[in-house]
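Collaborator request, handled under Task 6.
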Amino acid sequence: MKKTILVTLILAFFVLIAIFAGIFFYKNQTSYFSVGEFAVVNGKLTYKAAKFTGQEVIVYDGKEYGKEYDSIYHIKDIGGKLTFSAYRNVGAETNHYIIYGNEIIGDTEKYYRPSYPVEVNGKIAFEAYFGGSKSERNGKSRIVYNGQVYGEEYDWASKIADIDGKLAYVGKRGRETYIVYDGIEKGEGENPTSVNGTLTYLSGNKVIFGEKIIEGDYDSIQKGYGSKTIYEIDGKPAFAAIRDGKSFVVYDGKEYGKEYNMDSSEGTYSPETVFIIYENNHKLTYSFVNTYMVGNENYLSDIRFVYDGHEIESLPFEYDGKMGYVKNEKRKDFIVIDDKIVSPGYRDIAFVVNVEGKLIYIAKKFIGYSIYST
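Structure tokens returned to the collaborator:
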């Protein structure tokens, strides 16, 4: 009987500790239930987080932003200003906004549903809908940049990019898509991006890199994460392609990653390897995941990362000229730099960022995520 009472008191003690710890974290707002996308804004780590109440916020320079919105996303640094997209539900209507420093860009008499802000030559450019009805969402997408509207001659305009300080975007007419750069239509293509300050885009199964055409006997070129297809690595374009059912990365005239493709097995599964490339200033970095079917079920293998030809556990970062990553050991996460553990163990390390020579990371030590630095 006494033993039972003792065990109950011990359990109650630990429950009280957990409750008081939760209240402490909530009141001091130093810890969050989960964290999401991040960016470096004006030299400061900025990230999206969910509070223990479920409310989403953006944490920037020690302060919380965006509490008044139902959802926030697309964190950017545009001209040194914190910029993000958001929406708020008002009854049956959803209102979309872009928060650009102290300016709130919302619906106007000319356009509605502004979103996807991009920096072009230090100024903000974004997509918005013109014409039609907001409730029916049947308007046409246009580009708003520096007080002017672009893409009105097309059925649709989107996918903004800054190429050497000039506006580039995709204009769609019928089923065809065209690259528009500095007000000039360059030809059929999609996914414009800047590589070494040069207009680079996808045209069929070719990559156009300035005056150079990169082509091979590819069956197709694999669309990357979101709308990104072509990436810049050390001033050269990198992309993923498919040939004879096998995926691989194309970079600087060579093909990488074919060995990571799964082999089919008598029709038991139909595998596909999806590569995601990361823009690293010096070394080719990519991750891959195998997707396959067993019967009617979809399966994903664990995502794995490759940095400069070496397979590692997580997305790498560079610090003081050395490569670092997060490794899991004995159910704890550690930061590793140059093969040496440089941090305490955490329940989870969400991400690590080198901000102006200082290593900053978001990690969960007990019941929430907080910001730390080495």
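The cover message to the collaborator said: "The CA atoms of residues 155 and 174 lie 7 Å apart. Confidence is low (pLDDT under 50) at residues 13-29. Please let us know whether this matches your experimental observations."
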